[in-house]
TrEMBL record:
<keyword id="KW-0812">Transmembrane</keyword>
<dbReference type="Pfam" id="PF02321">
    <property type="entry name" value="OEP"/>
</dbReference>
<keyword id="KW-1134">Transmembrane beta strand</keyword>
<dbReference type="InterPro" id="IPR003423">
    <property type="entry name" value="OMP_efflux"/>
</dbReference>
<keyword id="KW-0564">Palmitate</keyword>
<dbReference type="GO" id="GO:0015562">
    <property type="term" value="F:efflux transmembrane transporter activity"/>
</dbReference>
<feature type="signal peptide">
    <location>
        <begin position="1"/>
        <end position="19"/>
    </location>
</feature>
<protein>
    <submittedName>
        <fullName>Multidrug efflux outer membrane protein OprN</fullName>
    </submittedName>
</protein>
<dbReference type="InterPro" id="IPR010131">
    <property type="entry name" value="MdtP/NodT-like"/>
</dbReference>
<keyword id="KW-0732">Signal</keyword>
<dbReference type="GO" id="GO:0005886">
    <property type="term" value="C:plasma membrane"/>
</dbReference>
<keyword id="KW-0472">Membrane</keyword>
<keyword id="KW-0449">Lipoprotein</keyword>
<comment type="similarity">
    <text>Belongs to the outer membrane factor (OMF) (TC 1.B.17) family.</text>
</comment>
Length: 504
């Protein structure tokens, strides 16, 4: 028996020494990328100071808007947003799945014990006499204990490739959480900008209501002096009513945006209304980044997810290929049986086996080779998806840069138009009060002024959103944000004593 045991151990040792990992090793897909972005329009090479400043801006870009309340809301959202917390738990779950796959490397050991009474049938010819029961009675008492173990020898790397694939899945899940974080920051900042611009529009509408009310008072005074007529007073009243009506949807929008911001922070809608509904100045529009080499695309979580998915698919080819090769398993059973407690540990009660088992696929109708081809096609699709993701990332960055540059002149022209319209409106009211123009000219200039002021406010909103969109497109803002762990009241340390002693 010792000879067989030594032989089995020797075979296992030699197989372990000759073990290899089949399947392709992951090689990153090298795309030819431009050195910089076309729309960046850098006129000179970046200095070390500019590079350092840009790298710092990429970490907490929301602070560039110079709005302390926005920065505080971002901090609270990172801590309280439920989508982000859910993504963190998905990472922890994937890590546990990876650890479960890695457990295949180690011997699997289970203990068992039992006892009781059994009865055998006597209606079978040539029933053998059972040891310890010379009368061949059908009843017997039995005690048993023992252990079973199994150890798969990872000769061709099936387990290694499986663990590698799960590790890549963990990394992809981490990048997915970063994508959720970036989406959260982008949505929160955009909602905050919309809130402040809507409040500015309410202020513009309130000022225009005051102007319309002054115009109504003027028409009533002129009518009482015999200069005006009822048509002009009716027109002035209608204009005042219209201005008041235009302000109400803006109030609704403010409430809706404050509710959305509260939910992003993990709070009930309405909790932040008292604070957010207080009008504040618009956030400061940051300067265009000093330097933007194309390598910053690597910060984008969607690009990183696509790259990790490609690595995962490559590892899964190795799993499929390893299934074409023999599998080696070392099974061990130790299971003594007896009819009395004092017999359970005697030599005659001992029962065990220690083997080296090998299995090799021979004929499966092409199933396993089909699995290899499927995994290869999946990996190639993942590589192409990675390339498409990089191209889409470049497009979004270039689009955001183009919008940033174009909206500067657009906002400046609308600001000038709003100022000119306000001047024309004031002059029309003065001429009307002097009886030099009709009230229709006053209404026309006031409506033009209101439209120009609203257009300017929306242009300022676009300028702020251009900055948010650019930093989001560059993949900025996720660095330095730690994962959140599970808070469920379950711990391995509170379970049975074996859970404390062994990694199960």
């Amino acid at each position: 028996m010792k000879i067989y045991r030594r032989l089995a151990l020797g075979m296992a040792s030699s197989l372990m020494l000759s073990a290899c990992t089949v399947g392709p090793n992951y090689q990153p897909d090298r795309m030819k990328l431009p050195a910089g972005f076309k729309e960046a329009a850098q006129e000179h090479p970046a200095t070390p100071e500019e590079i350092a400043r840009t790298n710092k801006e990429m970490v907490e870009w929301w602070s560039l808007f110079q709005d302390p309340l926005l920065s505080r809301l971002v901090d609270e959202a990172i801590k309280g947003n439920y989508d982000l917390q859910i993504a963190s738990q998905h990472i922890l779950a994937e890590r546990a799945v990876r650890d479960r796959a890695a457990s295949q490397w180690y011997p699997q050991l289970d203990a068992n014990m039992g006892g009781g009474d059994v009865r055998y049938s006597l209606n079978i010819d040539n029933w053998p006499i059972r040891p310890g029961n010379p009368m061949n009675r059908p009843e017997a008492s039995m005690l048993t204990y023992g252990a079973t173990a199994s150890w798969e020898l990872d000769m061709f790397g099936r387990i290694r490739r499986d663990v590698e694939a799960h590790e890549r899945e963990v990394e992809a899940t981490i990048e997915g959480r970063r994508a959720i974080l970036m989406g959260l920051l982008s949505e929160l900042a955009s909602d905050y900008m919309l809130l402040r611009v809507t409040q500015l529009q309410i202020k513009i509408a309130t000022d225009n209501i005051r102007v319309a009310r002054d115009a109504l008072d003027l028409t009533n005074r002129l009518y009482s002096e015999g200069v005006g007529n009822t048509l002009q007073t009716a027109q002035a009243q209608a204009e005042l009513d219209a201005q008041i009506a235009q302000r109400e949807p803006l109030k609704t929008r403010v409430s809706q945006v404050t509710h959305a911001i509260a939910v992003l922070l993990g709070k009930m809608p309405g909790e932040l209304e008292d604070e957010l509904k207080q009008p504040r100045d618009l956030p400061h529009v940051p300067e265009f980044p000093a330097v933007l080499p194309s390598v910053v695309i690597a910060n984008r979580p969607d690009v990183r997810v696509a790259e990790r998915k490609y690595a995962l698919a490559t590892a899964q080819i190795g799993v499929a290929v390893a299934n074409l090769y023999p599998h080696f398993v070392v099974p061990l059973t130790f299971n003594p049986n007896a009819s009395a407690m004092y017999q359970a540990f005697q030599a005659n009660a001992m029962s065990w086996q220690f083997l080296l088992m090998a299995s090799m696929p021979l004929m499966h109708g092409g199933k396993m080779t089909a699995e290899v081809r499927a995994s290869q096609a999946t990996a190639e699709a993942a590589r192409l998806t990675y390339r498409q993701t990089v191209l889409q990332a470049f497009k979004e960055v270039e689009d955001s840069m183009a919008a940033w540059h174009d909206d500067i002149e657009y906002a400046e022209q609308l600001h000038k138009a709003a100022q000119d319209s306000a001047t024309a409106s004031e002059r029309a009211r003065k001429l009307y009060s002097a009886g030099l123009v009709g009230f229709l000219e006053v209404l026309t200039t006031e409506r033009t002024t209101l439209n120009a002021q609203n257009m300017e406010a929306l242009a300022r909103l676009e300028r702020l959103r251009d900055a948010v969109n650019l930093y989001t497109a560059l993949g900025a803002g996720w660095k330095g944000v730690a994962l959140t762990n599970s808070t469920l009241p379950v711990s391995l340390e509170t379970q049975n004593v074996l859970a404390k002693a062994f990694s199960q």
